[in-house]
Amino acid sequence: MSTVLDDGVDDDLWSAIGDPTRRRLLDLLLEAGDGTATTLSEQVTVTRQAVSKHLAVLDRAGLVHATTAGRERRYRVDDRRLARAAAQLAEVGAAWDRRLGRIARIAETLQRERDRDRARRPHDRTDDPDPSDQTDPTDHTDHTDPTDDTEEP
Residue 56, Cβ neighbours under 10 Å: how many? Predict the structure, then answer.
């Protein structure tokens, strides 16, 4: 049984597709039209038993269907289910594009505000110090106020 959350994404489907070996098995089945665990295991780097387990996961997710022919189970890709997966991927991609677009607009707005604030306060810029704040290290003149009668501690 597949789990579909509020966002319309079938988690079981994507969990099945998320494994690289299962994706490779889907590719092989799409190329050949059908196959058995034995014929598929000859084309991948895992054992026939591992291929059987991967095919069982794909079958539970509805991506493949098995038919029995004698002692063999032949697997075929369910084209409608695979098309549904592709449509979901497109929807997820579009949703992330919208999210990233919003983030980019927020960042651009913040940058424009920062640039506008810097243009309004040029004396606050760290790369353009106020010359009145500068002291000449070679100037040994006493700059204290002679009329100031407060004593320094």
Answer: 15
